[in-house]
Amino acid sequence: MGKKAYKLAVIPGDGTGPEVVREGLKVLKAVSKKFGFGYTEELFDYGGERYLKTGKTITDKELANLKKYDAIFLGAIGHPDVKPGILEQGILLKTRFGLDQYINLRPVKLYNAAFCPLKDKKPEDIDFVVVRENSEGLYKGMGEFRKKGTKNEVAIQVSYNTRKGVERCLRYAFEYCRKRNKRKKLTLCGKTNVLTYAWDLWQRTFDTLKREYPDIETDYAHVDATTMWFVKNPEWFDVIVTDNMFGDIITDLGAMVQGGMGIAAGGNINPRGVSMFEPIGGSAPKYTGKNVINPLAAICALGMLLETVGEERAAHAVEGAVIKIVATKLKSLAAGKMGYSTTEIGDLIVATI
Ligand code: IPM
Ligand code: MN
């Protein structure tokens, strides 16, 4: 259930992050009036600009402070003048891990067939959700160099999977699939034929848990085959559960089949803690400050935030407005080609709500 006033932490971040977050907050203001809930928003300047000035990514103290909020709304992290990896690891991954946001929830939903790159696919064919494990696997950062810099160098990167970590992710996926109540089908996406330690654990845990969910149909697909089915038969999927690395890869493809990065949103979820919602498209430096980036991914992320904190009617209204604007107004979902500016799209959504 929702409550009366939410404490939101807002991290606009880098590149086009601030522009899309601004539109998201505009929409938040509109739905809060309409559905009668209050909120406070506190802005944090974590990102590339601050890093270049101070050398700080996000400190342990700042991370601990984020635990005081009901949710976090994030724009984008990534700066062209900062070496790749520093901000991603020092801010984004540090927050996901530090707040134990062990689920990355990424819905893939086509709102308008005209924006789908696949031939003959309609909105009813592309409507599934990827549940990506968000705290372990290859993202754990375990590994080492041996004989670094020599001809005999070896680089080892470990995929770290714990029974507890796998089980909580799978359980979330089963519960989510049940609550979603669409086709009630959960597909485990892995690589049991090659990664015989990690995926043996995933498969065994999946097989054990599914006995508790007789109402859910279960299926398995290798990750390479999954990418093929995304293109050929996306209608086969309802909920997909997978590890961190595979989830990262297949959700970029998922974003494209739903119409592109301009509309793809995700939530980093800690079911008993603080969750963080973000458009998954990144900071798009070349479009920064031009008022041309599509804010709908951020607006959809805000919708996910509202649903997660318990404002389901507001979340529904946001999604309804997005569907309407995507179906009736936009020429494209891509930056600069939408037929409207970033701020105009925010205004259209607000007017529809
Ligand atoms: C994503 C991004 C991140 C990831 C990067 C920026 C670290 O690609 O959210 O999918 O790999 O998780
Ligand atoms: Mn990614």
Structure description:
40% of the residues lie in helices and 20% in strands. It has 353 residues and is of the alpha/beta class. The strands form 2 sheets. Strands 2-1-3-12-11-4-5-10-8-9 form a 10-stranded mixed β-sheet, sandwiched between helices. Strands 6-7 form a two-stranded antiparallel sheet. A hairpin with a 5-residue loop joins β11 and β12. α5 crosses α6. It starts with a strand and ends with a helix. 3-isopropylmalic acid binds next to α4.
Poorly predicted ranges (pLDDT <50, ≥5 residues)? Answer: none
Tell me the quaternary state. single chain
Strand order of the largest sheet: 2-1-3-12-11-4-5-10-8-9
% residues in beta strands? 15-25%
Characterize the biggest β-sheet.
10 strands, mixed
Residue-averaged pLDDT, rounded? 97
Distance between the termini: 21 Å
| Anisotropy-based shape | globular
Q: Tell me the number of strands.
A: 12
* Helix and strand sequence: EHEHHEHEEEEHEHEHEHEEHHH
Helical residue percent band: 40-55%
Radius of gyration: 20 Å
Name the bound molecules: 3-isopropylmalic acid, manganese (II) ion
Class by alpha and beta content: alpha/beta
Instruction: Count every helix, treating DSSP H or I runs of 4 or more residues as helices.
Output: 11
